[in-house]
Amino acid sequence: MSSSKILITPSILSCNLTRLQEEVDTISSADWLQVDVMDGHFVPNLSFGAAVVKNLKTKLPLDIHLMVSNPLERLKEFFAVGAKHITFHAEAVTDTADREEIIAHIRKGGAGAGIAINPGTPISAIDDVIGDVDLVLVMSVHPGFSGQSFIPEVLEKVKALRKVHPELMIQMDGGIDALTAKDCKRAGANNLVAASYIFNAQDRKAAIEALRSA
Ligand code: DX5
User: Fold this and answer.
1) Is residue 34 within 8 Å of 11, Cβ to Cβ?
2) Within the chain, where are the H helices?
3) How far does residue 44's CA lie from ligand 1's centre (Å)?
4) Mean of the pLDDT values across residues 29-48?
5) pLDDT per residue over 185-214, tens digit each?
6) Probe ligand 1: pick from 35, 173, 191, 197, max atoms within 8 Å of CB?
7) I need a labelling partner for 175 at 20 to 30 A (CA). Which of 2, 13, 196, 204 fits?
8) 176 CB under 6 A from ligand 1?
9) Closest ligand 1 atom to 143 CA
10) Is 2 exposed, middle or buried, given 0-12, 13-18 or 19+ CB atoms closer than 10 A?
C-alpha cells in the first residue's frame, strides 16, 4: 500500500485571509494546499471562489474541494488558476453519467479528479466511479465549517476502502490534529487535510511535521 508517503494538505479556510500570501508562505513544507469552496446551498456556509487564490504565489499544488451543488459550473474558474486536483461531492452529483462527465471535464482541464463522501454516506455510493478517480475524500466532519470534532466512525470506511484499493489516494478532512492523524493513517489514509490545527499553531512547520510523523 502507498501509505509510506503521507501528504499534508493545509486548508486556507481558517487562515487570516487578509494576509493570505503571508499565511501561505508559512506552510511551504506542506505537500498540497486546499481551497474549500462553499456555495451556501450544498453546505450551510459560504466561502470563496478562485478569485481568492488567483494572485497567490505558491509552489504547492492547489487542491480544490468543491462543496457546491453544481460542480460542473465551477470547474472553469479553477482551471484558470492552475488547479492540480479538483474534488466534488458524491451527494451533489448522484447520477453515474453526470459523475463521469465531471471527471472527464476535470481531466480535460489538466487536473486530477476526486470524489468526496460525507460522514453519513457509505462507500458503496461511489462504487460506480471509484475506478475512474484519482482520489477519494472521506470527510471526518459534516462539511461547512472548520474547527469541528473528528467523527471516528468514518475510520471504518477508510479501512474498507484501503483493503480493496491498495494504491488509491485516500484523503481525510475535518477535525484532524496530531492525535486523530494517527488513527487516520492507521486506517489507511495517505492525504490529511487540516485547517485549524495548522493555522491556529504558532509554529506551522512544527504542526505540519507533527501530522506527518503522527
Ligand atoms: C469542512 C472543510 C474542511 C475544514 C477542516 O467544511 O472541508 O477543510 O475546513 O477544518 P478543521 O481542520 O479545522 O477541522
Assistant:
1) yes
2) 20-25, 75-79, 96-108, 155-164, 178-187, 196-199, 204-212
3) 13
4) 97
5) 999 999 999 999 999 999 999 999 999 999
6) 173
7) 2
8) yes
9) 6
10) middle
Domains of the chain listed by start with CATH number:
3-212 (3.20.20.70)
pLDDT of residue 76: 98
- Condensed to tens digits (0 to 9), the pLDDT of residues 17-35 reads 999 999 999 999 999 999 9
The protein residue with its alpha carbon nearest to ligand 1, atom 7, reads 143
Q: Which atom of ligand 1 is nearest to the CA of 67?
A: 7
Distance 129 CA to ligand 1 centre (A): 24
In this prediction, residue 77 carries a pLDDT of 98
Given a cut of 60, whether residue 1 has pLDDT beyond it is no
Reading the block at residue 189, the C-alpha cell is: 489514509
* Ligand 1 atom with least separation from CA of 198: 12
Mean pLDDT of the chain: 97
> What confidence score (pLDDT) does residue 99 get?
98
Is 81 within 8 Å of 49 (Cβ atoms)? no
Contact between 137 and 111 under an 8 Å Cβ cutoff? The reply is no
